[in-house]
Amino acid sequence: MKAATKRICSVLTGVGLGLGLSTSVWAQASLEDVMKERGLTQKDLLAAAKTYTPTGGRDEYLAFSSGGQSGHVIVYGIPSMRILKYIGVFTPEPWQGYGFDDESKAILAQGKINGKQITYGDTHHPAFSETEGEYNGKYLFINDKANPRLAVIDLHDFETKQIVVNPFMKSDHGGAFVTPNTEYVMEASQYAAPVSHDYVPLEEFNDKYRGALTYWKFDMKEGRIKPEDSFTFELPPYSQDLSDAGKKVSAGWGFTNSFCSERYVGGIERGRPPFEAGCSQKDTDFLHVTNWKKAAELVAAGKVHKVNGSYQITIEQAVKEGLLYLIPEPKSPHGVDVSPDGKHIIIAGKLDSHAWVYSWEKIQNAIKNKKFEGKDPYGIPIISMKDTLHTQVQVGLGPLHNQYDSKKCVVYTSIYVDSMVTKWDYCQGKVLDQLHIHYNIGHLVSMEGDSVSPDGKYLVSLNKLAIDRFNPVGPLHPQNHQLIDISGDKMQLLYDMPLPLGEPHYVVAIKADKLKPAVRYKSGWDSRSDKKSPWKTRAGREKVVRKDGVVHVYGTVIRSHITPEIIEVEEGETVSIHLTNLERAEDETHGFAMYSQNVNLSIEPGKTVSATFKADKAGVYPYYCTEFCSALHLEMQGYLLVKPKGYVAKAGKIEEGQKYTKADYDKQVKTNIDTQAVINSVVGFITSHNYKDFPEVVALVEDATDQLGFADEAKKKAEAYAAKGDYQNATLWAGQHWQYQVKTADLGLRAKTFLEEHGAKKVEPKKAK
Ligand code: CUK
Ligand code: CUA
């Protein structure tokens, strides 16, 4: 018994040594010593205490950051600022197998434009799904500015489920912003372009180039955008910028601002002054006010025509139906942000030093009384600025974006040129506090800041540049996200986090306990379509089927082998490998990588994924599991053998490198008996406790039961060979029996430790299984 226990223990607890020494040295130094040695002040310590999260600790908020040009979404915790995940969205993400398995390739293929696969994204604005204006923790949306696309991420598994391409735009920026019940996701164009996909000379800019604002219909139940029920406003060729949806009193309406309402077209090479000169001449640009609720009714009533296969509300129709208005706003504005109660709309003018507060009540009155100061060249009524402005406040040079606090009337504005955050009161129009941040702030985010009830607490400043702030890593620097405590009257800077993935424009943060992510899939699950996979395979049902010119391999993975371990095909055949992870235990993911075929899968517990490729060259292609899943992980391997056409197998069998005798067999059997005793004692512990109250443990026990089932089969095979005197096979199968036992014991010990750590109670002794 002792020998076996030792062997298992060394297998199971072989890692994790060497920590003791450094901890004890650390413990000997006093806080003062450390402060002195590292040059820290009391203020630093206080800041550290507010962000430091001890091992095993959790964050109160999760932030979802745009991954900029990487096309990913970055997830990090607040206040610890620890990065938790990169979610592949518009671009492949190898660790998750995103863009490598057939299922996720199909998602990326939805994002093709004019038949071309786009392998980057310029992500800007993530947005959470909402119910009555509150984040509901179900979905996240994000836009791609360069290729006007929108993606849907399911927060149940943090996977991208859908990409839609805008049929009217050639770029976007004013998305993703959601309406209060996620009825629609807003996406506004940025650079005006012809509505058709044809060539249109710039001389026809005013007539043929257009902006657009799409309201994508979202089905919360299905978790998918419905392009067929979505509609788009045709807009003048002003460069539309950011958007926001009305809330509470302003629900049903949307706001989109613009720059370059001069409709200037540059052309340095034609001797024309550049865009930047011509686009900043007028003192004001236009805020677009759209009535989506009424527009949706028109669509439902069949009164809207389709263009490019999608509903388009023309400017003419929008004006006639009272769906579209313009309000002058300070020139070259950037952020437009509706207050939590929906009564105010704050616009920051990036070439100005003011933030402008508009009153929804005043806007509504003007619309009701048809009080307009005129029309734009496209016939859209213009409501005057003075009839709608509540107040304007000097907040600093180059204000960009606004985020609301939990405290009434309090808002934070990012000040790009002055590199600071201004906290101010938008009801009374006065500045409350200012904090210098490191450099060139873009967006900023407060906790649940876009909802109808922001939490305040923390603010993250998304700084564009990180000059001089971190260890140099070459000409391209990371971005700098700075954590700020906003719980008191004065803002306090807490922490700098370098973010080394693209230029993240915007971040949204949600209370962590609103998210309920799964730890496993239902067995045989296609996570991208959220359905049972047609390729799902159960243990013992692995098979190879040749159909319609494709070799389908129905395989499984479980600690520590891939079934099948040998795949044989003929040169030129198309191979489709479908793998199901049979595990249920948390985090028990297997990978699958194959030499030179660009095959790289991630198979989380329960998941089924496929890799299809052409075996166009005869040869030997090793494959293996890429996740360190168990002690015998390196042995989780196999071979794809691609035989030349018409190859005739020679007689003979695989010669094993090692010969076994009866003594070897007996020794292995003895080990197995001892190991079984260990298993029995662990099982005894588990079943004598209320383990069924712990779903994590139930999953482990189910996996252990599976492994033990396999163990029995291996044992029977070993005994059958031994009976025939074939000790070679008998010893090998007895060894496999032991492998299954080790896995059973591993799972059992993990379950036992979990029960001990979570205060499981002893129950009436039950018969051990
Ligand atoms: S944008 Cu980049 S800093 Cu796309 Cu919201 Cu303002
Ligand atoms: Cu499975 Cu390593």
UniProtKB/TrEMBL annotation:
Pfam families in the record: Cupredoxin_1 (PF13473), nos_propeller (PF18764)
Keywords: Copper, Metal-binding, Oxidoreductase, Signal
GO MF annotation, one: metal ion binding
CDD domains reported in the protein's UniProt record: N2OR_C (cd04223)
SUPFAM superfamilies on file: Cupredoxins (SSF49503), Nitrous oxide reductase, N-terminal domain (SSF50974)
Residues covered by the EfeO-type cupredoxin-like domain: 560-642
NCBIfam families per the UniProt record, alphabetical: nitrous_NosZ_Gp
Stored InterPro entries: Cupredoxin, EfeO_Cupredoxin, N2O_reductase_N, N2OR_C, Nitrous_oxide_Rdtase_Sec-dep, Nos_propeller, NosZ/Cyto_c_oxidase_sub2, WD40/YVTN_repeat-like_dom_sf
Enzyme nomenclature, EC number: 1.7.2.4
Any single GO CC term annotated in Swiss-Prot or TrEMBL for this entry: cell envelope
Signal peptide residues on this chain, from the entry's feature table: 1-27
Organism lineage: Bacteria, Pseudomonadati, Pseudomonadota, Gammaproteobacteria, sulfur-oxidizing symbionts
Protein name, as recorded: Nitrous-oxide reductase
Predominant location category: other
Cellular compartment(s): Cell envelope
